[in-house]
Amino acid sequence: MKTFHGPSAPTIQDASRRKPLPSLAVKLYNWCESIKIQITPEDPIIVICISDTHSSRPVVPKGDLLLHAGDLTQSGSFKELQDQLDWLNTQPHKYKVVIGGNHDLLLDPAFTDSFPERIFEKPGSCRSDLKWGNIIYLEKSSIKLDFANGRSLNIYGSPLTPQFGNWAFQHPPIRDVWTNVTPKDTDILLTHGPPKCHLDLGGKGDPYLTKELWRTRPSLVVFGHLHASHGEEVIVFDGIQAAYDGIMMGEKGYSSLAVMALLSLHHKATGLLEMGRGASKSKITRLINAAVVGDRGDMRPRDGISVTL
Q1: For the whole prediction, is pTM greater than 0.85?
Q2: Please, are residues 96 and 60 in contact by the beta-carbon 8 Å criterion?
Q3: Which one, of 68, 153, 63, lies nearest residue 107 by Cα?
Q4: pLDDT tens across 19-37, in order?
């Protein structure tokens, strides 16, 4: 039995002090967010999660499925991409699934067409010349994978992130690129950026992605992009979660904080809190920020994260 805890307090403390409602919501959420989930299901599938390797080669645990959530490279060149693909192809996992990230410039034709000075393609070093080997590349697409134990997993992958600077696979922050996009039967969502409110450096994630998780409720969401928010979290799709997400996205007020408090007290009184909210019948989604390269203060690469599904 493994215990997961809710998100830490917002990273920007001054902003939290200026906005007491989100700060109170985070404190209450952390108090009630000790979730126990069984990590040894029947016929388990071991999923290894990495992201933001930026041309590094981290320790990758053994498993059945290796996921890379983008930013394989630092500058997006052909050589960097091919070096990372060659390295990934040496890994023993039966399946290796990859998406691009904002640093992987060559993988985004719209970017290379608009900014040819940023990435120089010449004969033999174009996107079409990349040798992918047995790597599965997803770009706003999905695949169903069958495993030896008889189980299968549906994976949807997208590299899109809200615009910050001038990079690949980005869109204006006000644009909704997620609503009704993920197939309903998705087991694993592989995306470069995080959902808002969760492992997103104090609110820098995509709010439309958070709402899409409520619609599809996949078992696992793997991302990176915001290196300092590396870690794991669990969403339980219940009343506490709905109130918390609404407050953190600025859509709900103090009445939702009261709802959080009342539901938390009810869970406490009935013993559900001690068992973990995951003991309820509500659907659970595990979130992994798998960024390998650390933040600017600590750039040492981290190992891949192992998840049992």
Answers
A1: yes
A2: no
A3: 68
A4: 789 999 988 888 776 545 5
